[in-house]
Design a protein that fits this description.
single chain, 284 residues, alpha+beta, Sulfite Oxidase, Chain A, domain 2, five-stranded mixed β-sheet, five-stranded antiparallel β-sheet
């Protein structure tokens, strides 16, 4: 009787933990995708006035709308998403922070650990936006960098930090082999290959860039930031300065605890079963 009660209580606790973990995970996901009220964007690095802004602060700044299409390097002839993007011109935002004269690059970081970069000269183009709406509707990924004419890996979503630097920062995909110059002619001249990149273009002469001929080739693959609909986390190993890794979620932590409890419970039950069987064998 006592053993049955013990099993019932343990099973109930484990069930509640699992249900709670799924519930908290869903709430966290919904919050990240739909609630922008608490979203924070920082502009740091080589600036005179570091900024910490909410989406409401961005909406209070001069707005601009730009029609643009996002293309993935894996399927350059088909737009992943396109429309009228509304937000703040990137350069307007950077000027508000005060750009240092020795800035060479702008690094962008997302809440899921993804990052990308733009040369300071590119960042000054008037058609580059930090968007919060598409076709008049708020973005599910809150803030997205809109870079017309460049491949999707430059269109970082879930932006939380913009940092101005004076060194050659490379983002997640760029550090894995994608061209740092993300300029694309997709959608205007038909399907085209990504810009020459010695790490995955077999016809490229690696000796011109002082790369060893044995450098492994990397096949292009899409990142979650190519999509403006449902971004997910796919992280590279953080081997470079300023790489960000998201903390363990409530779901992961609770699931681990539930598994540990279940394992311990199974061990206790197995041990008691063996003891019971041994006792029966003695008296039978």
């Amino acid at each position: 009787m006592k053993q049955s009660a013990f099993l019932l209580v343990t099973a109930t606790i484990i069930g509640l933990l699992i249900v709670a973990s799924f519930s908290w995970s869903l709430k966290a996901t919904a919050h990240a995708e739909t609630n922008s009220a608490d979203w924070q964007l920082s502009v740091t690095g080589l600036v005179e006035n570091p900024l910490n802004l909410t989406v409401a602060d961005l909406k209070a700044m001069p707005q601009t709308t730009e029609y643009a299409a996002l293309y993935c390097v894996d399927d350059p002839g088909v737009a992943v998403t396109e429309g009228n993007w509304t937000g703040v011109q990137l350069w307007t935002l950077l000027e508000t922070a005060g750009v240092s004269s020795n800035t060479t690059k702008v690094a962008f970081f997302a809440s899921d650990g993804y990052s990308t970069d733009l040369p300071i000269a590119t960042a000054q183009q008037s058609n580059i936006l930090l968007a919060y709406a598409l076709n008049g509707n708020p973005l599910s990924d809150v803030l997205r960098l809109v870079v017309p004419g460049e491949w999707g890996y430059k269109w970082i979503a879930l932006v939380t930090n913009i940092k101005l630097v004076n060194y050659n920062y490379l983002g997640t995909e760029e550090s894995l082999g994608y061209a740092d110059n993300g300029v694309s002619s997709a959608g205007t001249q038909g399907p085209t290959a990504p810009p020459y990149n010695p790490l995955y273009n077999p016809s490229y002469n690696s000796s011109e860039d002082n790369l060893p001929s044995s450098t492994p080739l990397i096949s292009p693959s899409p990142t979650p930031h190519f999509s403006a609909i449902t971004p997910t986390s796919t992280l590279a190993t953080p081997t470079q300065q300023d790489k960000q890794t998201p903390p363990m979620t409530n779901y992961t932590f609770i699931t681990v605890i539930a598994i540990l409890i279940a394992t311990a419970t199974a061990t206790v039950i197995l041990r008691k079963s063996k003891q019971t069987a041994a006792s029966k064998s003695i008296y039978n």
